[in-house]
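Dear Dr. H.,

I hope your travels went smoothly. While you were away I took the liberty of generating a structure for the chain from your last submission, since the lab meeting agenda had it listed for discussion. I wanted you to have the full record in hand beforehand rather than looking at slides cold. The sequence, exactly as received, is reproduced here:
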Amino acid sequence: MVDSETASPRQEDTTPLPPGWEERTDANGRVFFLCHNTRTTQWHRPTAAAPDVPQRSGSQYDRARANYQARRLLSHEDEPPADGAGETVVQGHQPHDAPFDDPLGPLPAGWQMQKAPSTGRWFFINHNTRKTTWDDPRKHNTQVDELGPLPANWEKRVHEDGRVFFIDHTTKSTQWEDPRINIASVGGEPVPYSRDYKRKYDLFKSHLKKPSNIPNRFELKLSRNSILEDSFRAIMSITNPDLLKARLWIEFKGEVGLDYGGVAREWFFLLSREMFNPYYGLFEYSATDNYTLQINPDSGICNEQHLDYFKFIGRVAGMAVYHGKLLDAFFIRPFYKMMLQKPITLNDMEPVDSEYYNSLIWIKDNDPEDLELMFAVDDESFGQTRTIPLLPNGADLAVTNQNKEQYIKLIIDYRFITRIEKQMNSFKAGFSELIPLNMVTIFDANELELLLGGLTEISVADWKRNSAYRGGYYDNHIVIQWFWKAVLMFDNEMRARLLQFVTGTSRVPMNGFAHLYGSNGPQLFTIEKWGTPAALPRSHTCFNRLDLPPYDSFYTLREKLRTAVENTQGFEGVD
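The corresponding predicted structure, in token form, is as follows:
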């Protein structure tokens, strides 16, 4: 005879149940017994003399009941009852993916979430392992997300209020800031702060005095569609260059804006794109890339007024330096050396034209007599080749092992100085009308490049470290966390466009975001709480301020921010 305690749940037993008990079968075919008196269940069949079931604590009982019902409902919902038989599935309690606007983002692959009908509590289904859990897998997610893997021994978790924080298991510490912000491939290169440059720049600025006999401001009204021509006529019509040192007041036709610095920065940015566009024939890209610029030696063929335009460009560059603005252009290193009146060496040739550089290195290290070179260079222009002597009668003077050093120097001088000498002199003439050339000689070529153009690679860590918050936002506010996560996910071009949207320029000062300037001097990048979640972000470029609505999810913030940056043009109100 088989003991009832160990009998199979499927074995029939006709013994009557005590009052208040009921026999049921779960979805897996297992028989269990429900006591309506105590609201408890058990696997073994009760008898009339069965002792009272011990009382359980409320929390333990609720947890057990919820776990049980979750298992049962899950099996029912995996295989819905046919023809309406079995328990009714509660509407809205089917397994599903995380909502699009869930602040924690999507669930990992193979996961779904479901709400328990009896308690309303969310549980999570792992279809990979066929298990369920109350723990949200995103709160302990150490998988790779859009920003890549976390550093070794780091873990990402989500606070109960939805904010993400990070645990460093090496130091047993936590922080709000994403540690990946300091990884160069994610957050950008660190800012190469130079104390020498800071001292030089402070000394340089202290010598830039505003003339006393000029108006309070220099007004310039122009059209965006003809910004180069309008700017050229206005600036070159000025006979007293000191007038260009007055406060700039730029107005774009058809736009209402008060220029407290932001519109001027926009003007320098847009004008740079036109002045240095190779389409106009004044500049051309260097031999190594399509980004670094050099003066076009054939600019006179492209534009009969080319020397006037180079003087105009020099004036604009001088205005940018004087007013603390930046140009959206970077030149080959010899260009900056010519401004500083420093000698150009063979090493300066390498980043411009590596093949030509290697040829000259070979000549320097070997006897060139077998090459039968002469002190002349072949120069091709618009399909025609001319032989240019480097010395009087140079076409008849052979290059030997004894005079090759002179030949190399003459080649470098011709390539970078002689054939563009008139254009460079006009540029320097215009620049020196606002900034005496002897004043910039305290800088080296690298520093002069950054003085004119700022930084190219944007460091998100430096950006975040030198930002301020207003209107209820603070460093660890969840919307601010989402904002910096979005910036980290942007590529460098999109970061530059965001920076230009808020500050009026895509360039960063030499010593980083701590040295951003607004209408009243130094002004940090500022994010202010404003508007409703339905609105797009807006900017005040004169104050380096972004008005950011309190969006309810990261994905909404990212898309709204991208839309504002990519589709906004023009000024309205105070900027």
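Two observations you may find useful: The longest strand covers residues 217-222. The two ends are 94 Å apart (CA to CA).

With kind regards,
E. W.
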